[in-house]
Amino acid sequence: MQTLYKINYTTRDRLLRAWEDAMESVRRLEVFSHETEEHEVKETFAACAELQAQTAAKLYELLRVRENG
To answer: In order along the chain (69 residues), what is the average pLDDT of each group of 10 residues?
Structure first.
């Protein structure tokens, strides 16, 4: 089967998608942290959310630099 339309993803597209995914992961992990009663699990979710937030910040910085030249 032939592909009639080819979609090309740019580096910006991939960075934006990765940043959005990381931000969603932060939100989800924070919710899990608040909904969990077990202290160890709650702390693990919170720590993972923090790590994902750091990742999201790095991705955002790469996007910002590319957007602003």
So the answer is: 80 96 98 97 98 98 91
